[in-house]
Design goal:
The protein is mostly helical. It has seven helices and two strands. The chain is globular and about 60 Å long.
Amino acid sequence: MLRRIFNERITPLGMTQAQWRALVHLSRNEGLNQVGLADLLEVQPITAARLIDKLVAAGLVERRPDPNDRRAQRLFLTQQAAPMLAQIWEIADEIYDEVLAGLDADNRDALAALLGRMRSNLTTMMLDPAPLPRVPAEAISK
C-alpha cells in the first residue's frame, strides 16, 4: 500500500517506480556497479541495464569506468538528479508523516528498531538460507 501511494504521488514527476527506486539506491550507494544495483532492485542485470540506459538518457545518471576492472562501469548521479531526489525525499517525508500520524517519538523509535531487526533477520536468512525447523503435522492439528 505504501509503495502504491508513493507511486501515485511521484507520477507528476514523470518517474516510474523502477526509476525512483534506482535513484534512491544510487543516492545511498554511489559508485555501485550495474550488478550491485540489480541486486538492490531485485531484478535481473539486463533489466537494470535498460533502466540505467533510460536514466543516463534523462541525464540523471552517468557511467564511469571502474578503475579496478576495465570491463565494468560504476554508476553515479549527475547534478541534474539532485533536484529530482529532493522532490522524492520531500514526497517521502510527507507520506511518512501521514502514515505515522498518532505515533509519538517513542513509538516511532520503537517501530524503527523493530523494523531494523526484521531487516537484519531477513538479510541473515538470505545469506544463510538454512531451512526452518519443520513443525510436526500433529502439533498443528491439535
